[in-house]
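User: My instructor asked us to take a sequence, write out its structure as tokens, and then describe one feature of it. I'm not sure where to start. Here is the sequence I was given:
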Amino acid sequence: IQLQALTRTVIGKKVKKNRLRGQMPAVLYGHGVDSTPLFVDAKLYKKAFHDAGTSALVDLTIEDQKPIKVLFHEPQMHYLHGEPVHADFYAVKMSEKIETAVPINYTGVSAAVEEMDGNFITNKDELQIRCFPGDLIQTIEVDISGLATFDDQIKVSDVKVPETIELLDDPEEVIALVAAPITEEELEAELAEDTTAEAEAVAELGAEAPADGEEAAEGEAPVGDAKEDS
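Assistant: Let's start with the prediction itself. The structure tokens for your sequence are:
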């Protein structure tokens, strides 16, 4: 995965013109490099990030320099349209281990889901790992076919990864299970409980609000009788 970049000399609000030309601001930092402001083509960055995520090495070439091995960090997103507006590139040293998050890809078929109409529940969609940059993997495969009953669970300790990779999450943490389907009676009970709680909240608010025509508390003038200061 490759990405081209240009050195950037403008900062702050001055980058607006570049954004209009499709250039997104970014910054490079990490091992063996000085913090360097950059511009990257927004469309090419989106494609590269789609392919690499945060767990694959990318060859970043700044103008005509030698490519640098980097990891993408999660980009800063626009709060309205959700498009990336700023990117961080972390330069790695191939001889030093790094820590990063790798997404989980759940595979297989659970009998508790297919045959017992259970609800598949995941507590994690990524795991933290430590390894050398050259040993990075883009996804962690987790087979859910072992979830045959509602008592079965998949813990971090059950996840299989290459020997070159160390999982950093708590080994006893449950990452996936299948919950029993909710019955109509349970659903109706939950709805009734929610309705009751809502009605109580409305009643409480109504009790706190003064009724129309209610006399003001002793020592307080009615709102309509207040005189303007002259």
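For the description part of your assignment, you could build on this observation: The helical segments are 16-20, 42-52, 111-114, 184-208. Try explaining in your own words what that tells you about the chain.
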